[in-house]
């Protein structure tokens, strides 16, 4: 049977067996509607409450009812941004960064198209924000909604959320952070940090796809985007996805119990993988600040080769990773994150993200390290651009773009 080595955990994670087990009774036995008056349905509600407590505990929320269950991280981000802008009224100034996930950039650009002022923070070559620019944008005297991610999904670089929150709150703004990649990987305590809203997603922390949550600090005004019934205290209508909510609660509980050990395990494997690749693959470099990043992520560029070609060859030998570059898939666009970081042209198309989880093993890393030098050498042999950067894009489609 073909080997599968899964090192793409920032894309999605395996559902933990404990999570699957916690969900099963809610498909087979306790399938009632938690809003029902009868005991069979209404009795399920206590399991929703328990799950809400577990999600709240993972991020240090003081009140479980500050957690609203959603369908995914994208929904949480959309709800946070559009819901707070709508509730503020008028035309608040929207602030974000160049390196956000599309689930933040999408609603921000939608608002810009509707006539809202949008300011986009730059990052430097290490993927860091400039706090003076955060201050400059937050202190305009206008009402502000700022949405700034906590950890970058492509590079793993961590933004200084506590410092940014302080600046944004001093300017009187609302602060939302997309914590989809950091939740469950590193400690979060919203009690101590001036955050108004925080998004997380189940499938990034070993719960299933199709469940997410939005933390809304008490007192934060938000207009619901799904209207109808009174579920989620009127903040999001729709009968609750009970099994998945229970699964998310279990995943948060597990993450809390295992966070330190998992982070140490992933960091050790990630560092060995990274050092091995840098030592054996010529023209490789790590993108982003290597000190201040998620313990499970490394983003490595390979000079004069194309990320998608590497991915295809990795896939051939059963290794699942990812690339930010979409060159061969038709858009010819390299990753917006790497472009924002001014990664040199000879490297920006050739990036691979490896992202690990608690389930990766030393054998997985050995296998990737065995395959990578062969793949990179092979692609370099085929590359017409190894010597000459001026010839432009080296994509599989032969686009020839400069
Ligand atoms: N935000 C970040 C930083 C992400 O990495 C992702 C998914 O990759 C999302 C939001 C969207 O989450 P979901 O897939 O749950 O919609």
General description of the model:
This protein is of the alpha/beta class. The protein folds into 2 domains: about 5-10 and about 260-385, Aspartate Aminotransferase, domain 1 (Alpha-Beta Complex); about 15-255, Type I PLP-dependent aspartate aminotransferase-like (Major domain) (Aspartate Aminotransferase, domain 2, 3-Layer(aba) Sandwich), CATH 3.40.640. It has 14 helices and 12 strands. Strands 2-8-7-6-5-3-4 form a 7-stranded mixed sheet, with helices on both faces. A 3-stranded antiparallel sheet has the order 9-10-12. The chain has a two-stranded parallel ribbon with strand order 1-11. α4 runs parallel beside α9, α5 runs parallel beside α6 (about 100-115) and α10 packs across α14 (about 360-380). The longest helix is centred in the middle third of the chain and has 39 residues, at about 240-280. It is globular and about 70 Å long. The two termini are about 40 Å apart. Mean pLDDT is about 95; it is low at about 395-400. Pyridoxal-5'-phosphate binds near residues 73, 101, 201 and 212.
């Amino acid at each position: 049977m073909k080997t599968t080595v899964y090192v793409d955990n920032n894309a999605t994670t395996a559902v933990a067996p404990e999570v699957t087990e916690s969900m099963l009774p809610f498909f087979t036995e306790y399938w009632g509607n938690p809003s029902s008056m009868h005991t069979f349905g209404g009795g399920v509600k206590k399991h929703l409450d328990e799950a809400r407590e577990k999600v709240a505990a993972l991020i240090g929320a003081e009140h479980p009812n500050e957690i609203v269950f959603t369908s995914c991280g994208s929904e949480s981000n959309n709800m946070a941004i559009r819901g707070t802008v709508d509730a503020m009224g008028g035309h608040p100034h929207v602030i974000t960064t160049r390196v956000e996930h599309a689930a933040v950039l999408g609603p921000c650009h939608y608002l810009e198209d509707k006539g809202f002022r949008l300011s986009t923070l730059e990052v430097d070559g290490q993927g860091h924000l400039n706090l003076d620019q955060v201050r400059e944008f937050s202190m305009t005297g206008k009402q502000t909604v700022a949405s700034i991610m906590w950890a970058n999904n492509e590079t793993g670089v961590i933004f200084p959320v506590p410092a940014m929150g302080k600046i944004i709150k001093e300017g009187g703004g609302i602060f939302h952070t997309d914590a989809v990649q950091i939740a469950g990987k590193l400690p979060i305590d919203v009690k101590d940090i001036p955050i108004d809203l925080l998004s997380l997603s189940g499938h990034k922390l070993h719960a299933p796809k199709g469940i997410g949550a939005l933390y809304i600090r008490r007192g934060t005004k938000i207009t619901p985007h799904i209207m109808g019934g009174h579920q989620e205290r009127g903040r999001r209508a729709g009968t609750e996805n009970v099994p998945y909510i229970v699964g998310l609660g279990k995943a948060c509980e597990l993450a809390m119990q295992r966070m330190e050990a998992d982070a140490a395990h992933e960091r050790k494997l990630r560092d060995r993988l990274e050092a091995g690749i840098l030592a054996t693959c010529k023209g490789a470099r790590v993108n982003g600040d290597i000190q201040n990043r998620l313990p499970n992520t490394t983003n490595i560029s390979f000079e004069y080769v194309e990320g998608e070609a590497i991915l295809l060859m990795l896939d051939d030998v059963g290794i699942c990773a990812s690339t930010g570059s979409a060159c061969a898939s038709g858009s010819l666009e390299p990753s917006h994150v790497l472009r924002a970081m001014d990664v040199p042209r000879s490297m920006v198309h050739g990036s691979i993200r490896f992202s690990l989880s608690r389930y990766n093993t030393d054998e997985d890393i050995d296998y990737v390290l065995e395959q990578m030098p062969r793949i990179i050498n092979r692609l370099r042999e085929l590359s017409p651009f190894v010597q000459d950067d001026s010839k432009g894009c080296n994509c599989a489609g032969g686009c020839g773009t400069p």
